[in-house]
């Protein structure tokens, strides 16, 4: 197996076209979005947003009235009502336009390529090596099916989504992530997944296809960014119900206004009543609601995160607990063997040989690094595959936390006279294994036939010291024949804590979010790393079931839980979490279990995801506040002006001194429409968001958007009235 990566041959890769900056409303974006916004005027679509549907019906009605009984006033109102609806559909179309651009550049990666398919079955996987040398046939990538094995060599395009089952390679994923730095993909560990359409830069890998053509990751991504899969979230539905109820209330209010008006000899025309209704119902938020949701998804996509549901994005905004795994999340994740610590009375060479033997068929990066170390630092020749003839492999799993090999005795052909079993893994489980053979791992002699007095304590001390440095200790033990197993020593796996985590976790704490590190590693290592990284809590020696149980426990207590993970062992927990972010490098199981995928495979991005979720909720809240405050203010701004002729006493309330009832109502309608356009950039960009507590944010936003919403109509309507009053026919 090749573990050194050859330098990458240079390949020209095109980056996706740069979309206009978020939240900008240039002529170009408007022009591009115009056809889509006109299509969205279809009442069958509009119906889904009741507030805007009412406006559209009102626009149609006033148009008819203007035709039947033409007047400048009626036409102006009709036109501005249509503009109001159009601004709403425009907001949504502009929000979607980025996704459309991204989708078309993604489609470009979906060309059919030729794949070299291995003529064999997955059974040949048993030894985890030698697949690439099997005979292959060339087939079109569109003909590949789940379970097929394909060989991909430097310079070739990976023909479909899959898991690397053999080898290690550097891969250019820029076609999908826009990130030009190559990434490592390798078999066995938590970096196995590859995406169709990406290019192998160096070395050779064998990939097992995991998605049928047409159902690949890129297909899903296209559907997502285009918004065709977007469904209203529960929160959006609730808000829509609220807006619809307000609409009905105002509809009744306006309907009952007429009898009173007639009674007081101030009968209002139908056009005025429709205009008044539109002014009072929450059109601002009704028009922008969908754009806010799309923009939130889009902000995630810009950070290379794909959310499979809008619900997940919202949940991210309300998260209470964040679970992070240690290896690869808090640490860099390239855990490598750095040192062998033999037990007293054990030759270093003997420990090295046993460590190598038990790692030969271990396809995890840790396993490979052990083989490397025994060769480079301990000069062990590489054992040939022959050394494993007739052997039974015990593969590593997160549930057993141990791996190894059982070799048969081969006295007849000059091999070892007795059967031999070697194990390596977490200290506690290797201890258990030693006990199961009748050995005593902690006692003075630690099952050592030579009866060395200090083996148990010495190995324990080494485990402790490796852990105290934040390393992962693997204990190696061996059993010859039927004799009790004995400890041979410790392998030190080194990993480094990522930089800048302390600050990020502090930020989360300020937002009121608790961080918990969950790891399969031992308590001491876990504690050391947790302290260095600054997480709030730690769960060590966790099996996949423990992770799942922890999430369920938190959820029972009413908490929303987010988790980042990459391993197959994380999949159950990712599925259970309210927000499950799978690393794109991770295993297919993990990617299918979560409700978000991070293309950059950066678990600390959870922090940004939480920020984006919060920003989405805050933006929606702020604009709802603004919209309703605005409508209330409009009521007081225009009602006195409308009735001032009938009730001269109202003049006291007519603080705005609007020109005439007609100009008042026209100005209010124009203002109502312009507010929507004015707020499109904010809806797309999101309200500025800082890491402070939810209560402080709420208070601040109530002030800004509540008060702003109350004041704005008075200023805006007055200014527009000054202009409108100059128009003949509206005076
Ligand atoms: N290749 C291996 N062979 C034997 N034992 C291993 C191997 N890799 C890991 N272990 C042991 O199993 C334990 C759990 O594995 P692993 O670290 O993958 O768990 P995890 O739950 O994914 O936690 P994390 O990834 O956060 O560290 C390790 O701490 C180590 O003791
Ligand atoms: K309104
Ligand atoms: Mg892991």
TrEMBL record:
EC numbers, comma separated: 7.2.2.6
Annotated function: Part of the high-affinity ATP-driven potassium transport (or Kdp) system, which catalyzes the hydrolysis of ATP coupled with the electrogenic transport of potassium into the cytoplasm. This subunit is responsible for energy coupling to the transport system and for the release of the potassium ions to the cytoplasm.
Family the UniProt entry places it in: Belongs to the cation transport ATPase (P-type) (TC 3.A.3) family. Type IA subfamily.
Biased composition, class Polar residues, residue ranges: 1-13
Residue stretches spanning the membrane: 49-68, 74-95, 237-258, 270-294, 632-652, 664-684, 704-727
Protein name, entry field: Potassium-transporting ATPase ATP-binding subunit
Catalytic activity of the protein: K(+)(out) + ATP + H2O = K(+)(in) + ADP + phosphate + H(+)
Domain P-type ATPase A: 136-226
InterPro entries (alphabetical): ATPase_P-typ_cyto_dom_N, ATPase_P-typ_P_site, ATPase_P-typ_TM_dom_sf, ATPase_P-typ_transduc_dom_A_sf, ATPase_P-type_domA, HAD-like_sf, HAD_sf, P-type_ATPase_bsu_IA
Pfam family, one: Hydrolase
Record region (Disordered): 1-22
Binding site residues for Mg(2+): 566, 570
Membrane topology of this protein: Multi-pass membrane protein
GO cellular component: plasma membrane
């Amino acid at each position: 197996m090749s573990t050194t990566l050859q330098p990458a041959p240079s390949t020209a890769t095109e980056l996706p076209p740069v979309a206009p900056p978020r939240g900008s409303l240039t002529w170009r974006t408007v022009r591009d979005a115009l056809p889509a916004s006109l299509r969205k005027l279809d009442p069958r679509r509009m119906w889904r947003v009741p507030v805007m549907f009412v406006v559209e019906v009102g626009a149609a009605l006033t148009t008819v009235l203007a035709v039947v009984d033409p007047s400048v006033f009626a036409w102006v109102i009709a036109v501005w009502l249509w503009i109001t609806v159009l601004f709403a559909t425009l907001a949504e179309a502009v929000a979607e336009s980025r996704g459309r651009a991204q989708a078309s550049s993604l489609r470009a990666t979906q060309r059919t390529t030729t794949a070299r398919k291995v003529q064999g079955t997955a059974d040949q996987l048993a030894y985890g090596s030698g697949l690439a040398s099997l005979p292959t046939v060339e087939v079109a990538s569109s003909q590949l099916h789940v379970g097929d094995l394909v060989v991909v060599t430097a310079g070739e395009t990976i023909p479909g989504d899959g898991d690397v089952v053999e080898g290690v390679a550097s891969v250019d994923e820029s076609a999908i992530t826009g990130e030009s730095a190559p990434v490592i993909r390798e078999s066995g560990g938590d970096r196995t997944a590859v995406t169709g359409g990406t290019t192998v830069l160096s070395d050779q890998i064998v990939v097992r296809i995991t998605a049928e053509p047409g159902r690949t990751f890129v297909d899903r991504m296209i559907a997502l960014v285009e918004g065709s899969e977007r469904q209203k979230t529960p929160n959006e539905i609730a808000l829509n119900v609220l807006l619809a109820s307000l609409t009905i209330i105002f509809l009744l209010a306006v309907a009952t206004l007429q009898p009173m008006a007639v009674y007081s000899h101030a009968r209002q025309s139908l056009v005025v009543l429709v205009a008044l209704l539109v002014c009072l119902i929450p059109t601002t938020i009704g028009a922008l609601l969908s754009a806010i949701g799309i923009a939130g998804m889009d902000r995630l996509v810009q950070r290379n995160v794909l959310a499979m549901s809008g619900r997940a994005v919202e949940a991210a905004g309300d998260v209470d607990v964040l679970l992070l795994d240690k290896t690869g999340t808090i640490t860099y994740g390239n855990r490598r063997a750095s040192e062998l610590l033999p037990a007293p009375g054990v030759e270093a060479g003997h420990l090295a040989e046993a460590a190598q033997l038990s790692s030969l068929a271990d396809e995890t990066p840790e396993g490979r690094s052990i083989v490397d170390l025994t060769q480079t630092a301990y000069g062990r020749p590489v054992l040939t595959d022959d050394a494993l003839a007739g052997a039974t492999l015990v593969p590593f799993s997160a549930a057993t936390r141990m791996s190894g090999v059982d070799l048969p005795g081969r006295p007849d052909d000059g091999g070892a006279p007795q059967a031999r079993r070697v194990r390596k893994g977490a200290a506690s489980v290797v201890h258990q294994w030693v006990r199961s053979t009748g050995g005593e791992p902690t006692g003075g002699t630690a099952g050592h036939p030579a009866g060395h007095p200090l083996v148990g304590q010495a190995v324990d001390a080494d485990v402790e010291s490796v852990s105290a440095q934040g390393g992962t200790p693997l204990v190696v033990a061996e059993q010859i024949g039927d004799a009790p197993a004995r400890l041979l020593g410790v392998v030190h796996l080194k990993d480094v804590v990522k930089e800048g985590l302390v600050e990020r976790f502090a930020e989360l704490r300020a937002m009121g979010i608790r961080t918990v590190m969950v790891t399969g590693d031992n308590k001491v290592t876990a504690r050391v790393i947790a302290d260095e990284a600054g997480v709030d809590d730690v769960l060590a020696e966790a099996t996949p079931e423990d992770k799942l149980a922890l999430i369920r426990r938190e959820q029972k207590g009413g908490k929303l839980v987010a988790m980042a993970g990459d391993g197959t062992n994380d999949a159950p927990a990712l599925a259970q979490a309210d927000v499950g972010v799978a690393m794109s490098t991770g295993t297919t199981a993990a990617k299918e279990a979560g409700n978000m995928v991070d293309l950059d495979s950066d678990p600390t991005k959870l922090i940004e995801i939480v920020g984006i979720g919060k920003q989405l909720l805050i933006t929606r809240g702020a604009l709802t506040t603004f919209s309703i405050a605005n409508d209330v203010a409009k009521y007081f701004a225009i009602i006195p002006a409308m009735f001032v002729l009938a009730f001269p006493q109202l003049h006291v309330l007519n603080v705005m001194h609007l020109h005439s009832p007609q100009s008042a109502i026209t100005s209010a309608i124009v203002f109502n429409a312009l507010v929507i356009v004015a707020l499109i950039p904010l809806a797309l960009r999101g309200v500025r968001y800082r890491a402070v507590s939810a209560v402080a944010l709420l208070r601040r936003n109530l002030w800004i958007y509540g008060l702003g919403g109350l004041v704005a109509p008075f200023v805006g309507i007055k200014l527009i009235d000054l202009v409108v009053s100059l128009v003949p026919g509206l005076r």
